[in-house]
Amino acid sequence: MIPIGLIGLGVMGSHLACNMLEKGFAVAGFDGDQKCRDLCATHPELLADSFSLFSDLDTLIAALKPPRILILMITAGTPVDHLLAQCSLKLTRGDILMDGGNSHFTDTIRRHKAMAVHGIAFFGVGISGGAQGARHGPAIMLGGDRVPDALWHLLQTISARHQSQPCLIHAGPDGAGHFVKMVHNSIEYADMQLLAESQFLLHNLMGLDYPDQARVFETWNQGDLAGYLTRITAQILRKIDPETGCPALDILQDQVGHKGTGLWAVQAALELGVSTPNLTQALDARVMSGMQAERKAVRKRWPVHATKVKIFEQEWMIPALAHALLAARITVFAQGFKLLAAASQHYDWALDLGAIAACWRGGCILQGTMPEWIHVAFRANPGLEHLWLDPVLGQKTAAGFDLGRRVLAIALGKELPVPNLTTALSCFDTFRQQHLWTRMVAAQRDCFGSHGFLRTDREGSVTWDWTLKQ
Predict the structure, then answer these.
(1) How far is the C-alpha of 372 from the C-alpha of 162, rounded, in Å?
(2) Closest CA to 363 of 222, 181, 161
(3) Burial per residue of 366-381, b for 16 or more beta-carbon CB atoms within 10 angstroms, e otherwise
(4) Is the pTM of this model over 0.70?
(5) Catalytic residue positions?
(6) What is the pLDDT of residues 230-245, one digit of tens each?
(7) Alpha-carbon distance 428 to 197, whole Å?
(8) Could you give the residue ranges of the DSSP H alpha helices within 290-361?
(9) How confident is the model over 249-277, as pLDDT tens digits?
(10) In the chain, what are the domains?
């Protein structure tokens, strides 16, 4: 059996190697870092005869017979360029290179062109599901030209399954796969934020202890809010710190970082002219969490005076919060899919939005009810302009915000911020207005800068002298 070449044996790479070995593939692995090579010894699967470990790139490539399949699972950015420069001199025409890291999609477009000069088929591949997904079956989003049968067979075999269907998509050419993965991660940021804000209200507004909060999320995970992130939120709420015996959340700092894909998605949205306020806010929340010194100073000067509601109010508040969370989740996914649609048009990728949703039904962080509903919506109407215009998703959004807006208002009145939930509500309400405040902004711009404005009663831009006559 011809082995699959795997470069990068860190957490994701080593788990992916175990997945491939379990599915019957031989694997030849290489990592320039001795620590990563040592990590292989912690995986019993990597002690099998079908796994070969190499300490340099030349011997790895020599061990692979053309047409070779090489998978890169290394840090995005410059390391990928350095490795591709080496590979371009050592590989032969017809060989296949697959970048499975979180590379920026524009880098993937550039690398795709560069490798094509050497006759090397280059694919940018988004792999979602974390270490456990890599080990047991991730969702895979492929970008590149025609996919060779050998590569497609490999990816079909190692990917997650949903109702026996592989969670795998050939998204489109060059950078399409990495773009889809980037948007997936940005939606993930916002969905995590929504769930965290919901837990924040259960704790600080309704006064539930952690076990009761866990039971709420476990109940939610049996219905419309079901999904991987909902499940692990309940799991986290039951976790106890083994050192102190305290609930895990009580010993965690509230500062959280990000690795770049959320930022890239927000930048791409701005460049493509797509409004994604919830995706932007989720990133901003992480940035704000790091402003520890400023937060401490402001908190000392103007402390919060929040009070919890009466116990009997929990009876209506918990279901109301669930409705608000569901509506906000639909809003977040709607923003992400508008970004995908805009990129598809701009880059001429012909993305199949329904197929992307189908790919996310298993293996990935976003798996749950939402991708299934979105898949059904696009299957019924492939030209769907916005998720809110789908009869089912639109009704769930409208009803959810109608039932949930009161609990959000109470939270704000009690000085409890829930910025992503309220951003989603504002986004929905903004779309529903006949006239926005932007009429005044247009007038202001023309008043001081003669930028022009559009009239309602005729076409074309006009500008006025806004000086009032005496």
Answers:
(1) 10
(2) 161
(3) bbbbbbbbbbbbbeee
(4) yes
(5) 181, 188
(6) 999 999 999 999 999 9
(7) 18
(8) 292-301, 314-347, 353-359
(9) 999 999 998 888 999 999 999 999 999 99
(10) 4-174 (3.40.50.720), 182-432 (1.10.1040.10), 438-470 (1.20.5.320)
